[in-house]
Design a protein that fits this description.
Number of domains: 2
Keywords: Coiled coil, Intermediate filament
InterPro entries: IF_rod_dom (IPR039008)
Mean pLDDT: 69
Strand content: under 5%
Low-confidence stretches: 1-20
GO cellular component, one term: nuclear lamina
Radius of gyration: 67 Å
GO molecular function: structural constituent of cytoskeleton
Protein name: IF rod domain-containing protein
Length: about 400
């Protein structure tokens, strides 16, 4: 029989290994016993050939005896008593050989019956071994299917982990891009603040410059006023004081207005920048917290992934080892099955040959029994003839003696 089954298997149980070993041991005993029986049958065939050769020799000897008997029948005038004495030992020997041959046929029948019983026993043991092999094949098939299912489950889990890792990496890249955009916005806000501060400094410098110009103009006016006549000075004093007050009031108004406008603009810009910076800082803080959480999650997932990768690698190594071992076991199992098939085929052929030889032996035995019975009847009939002829010769000798005595008396 030929078998094939798919392979990854798990660790087999001790009972399965023991069953396989017992089946293998039973097969080896079966082959050894078959070899012994084959040798015994060869010896029995040799003995049977010797027996057949001996029977043929006896048949040839019987033919010679028949020829001699015919010759003796042709020459009845000879001494019949000496002939009987001459062939008496041969007849006894032939009877003994016939008895031994009959006993040999009985031994052959006993051997044949024992071989039939052994053949039935071997058939029963072969069926037991075949059933054990089928049970082992079923067990190995279930173990391989279980290991294959576990391997498929681990592969699907590994693929899901890889997908999750890709998703986390994509989300991390997105967060990095958002953080970079927030940093760019923060840098732009800082640049706007610096620009406004520079504008404020420029306006302050311009105010100081205008103040110096107005102070210089006042100084020049005062100098002109000092150089003018008294009445002119007195005339323009009130006008100049009024103009100075107006200029100063206008200057103060301009300065105050400019200062208020600048402070308002500056405060507005600062508030906007601070609000933007605060919101961006909050967003950045939130994003940093999210990034920290994501990093922790990624670290945890990487640890789990490393553990699962190590476990998956161990399972793959174990699966490869199991597949290699399963392939070796399958090859050994198929080789053992081929050997068993060959041995069983040879045994079947030997059994068929033995059955044919036994049938031939039985036919030969029946033929020999028939020939022996015929030969026995012939020998008994010839022995009866010899006795009858001996009695006739004895009577003739007695008559001859009486006739001779009568002649002597005359």
């Amino acid at each position: 029989m030929s078998t094939s089954y798919s392979m990854h298997r798990t660790v087999t149980t001790t009972s399965t290994s023991h069953g396989y070993g017992s089946a293998s041991h039973a097969a080896e005993e079966f082959v050894a016993a078959a070899e012994r029986e084959k040798q015994e049958m060869q010896q029995l065939n040799s003995r049977l050939e010797a027996y057949i050769s001996r029977v043929r020799q006896l048949e040839d000897r019987n033919k010679e005896l028949v020829i001699e008997l015919d010759t003796l029948r042709g020459s009845l005038g000879n001494d019949i008593g000496q002939i009987k004495f001459k062939f008496n030992d041969s007849l006894v020997k032939v009877r003994r050989e016939i008895t031994e041959a009959h006993a040999g046929t009985i031994g052959v029948e006993v051997k044949v019956n024992r071989l039939r019983d052994d053949l039935n026993d071997y058939r029963h043991r072969y069926e037991e071994a075949r059933r054990e092999v089928e049970r082992e094949k079923t067990t190995w098939g279930g173990a391989i299917a279980q290991a294959q299912a576990e391997l498929d489950t681990n592969k699907s889990r590994y693929a899901a982990i890889l997908d999750e890792e890709k998703r986390l990496y994509a989300e991390q890249d997105q967060l990095y891009h958002q953080l970079a955009a927030a940093k760019d916005e923060l840098d732009a806000a800082i640049a706007d603040r610096l620009r406004l501060q520079a504008e404020e400094d420029d306006l302050k410098i311009e105010l100081e410059f205008l103040g110096r110009i107005h102070a210089q103009e006042i100084t020049e006016l005062r100098a002109l006023l000092a150089q003018a006549p008294a009445d002119t000075r007195e005339f323009f004093k009130n006008e100049l004081a009024l103009a100075i007050r107006e200029i100063k009031a206008e200057y103060d108004k301009i300065i105050q207005t400019t200062k208020v406008d600048l402070e308002t603009i500056f405060q507005t810009k600062i508030a906007a920048v601070e609000a933007s910076v605060a919101s961006k800082n909050e967003a950045a803080t939130f994003r940093q917290e999210e990034i920290r959480k994501m990093n922790e999650s990624i670290t945890t997932l990487r640890a789990k992934l490393s553990e699962l990768e190590a476990r998956n690698a161990a399972l793959e190594r174990e699966a490869n080892t199991l597949q290699i071992q399963l392939g070796e076991d399958q090859r050994a199992y198929e080789s053992e099955l081929v050997k068993r098939d060959n041995a069983l085929r040879f045994m079947r052929e030997d059994c068929q040959t033995l059955i044919a030889e036994l049938q031939a032996l039985l036919n030969t035995k029946q033929t020999l029994d028939t020939e022996i019975a015929i030969y026995r009847k012939l020998v008994e009939s010839e022995e009866g003839r010899f006795n009858h002829i001996g009695q006739g010769v004895t009577v003739q000798q007695q008559e001859i003696q009486r006739f001779g005595s009568r002649c002597n008396a005359s």
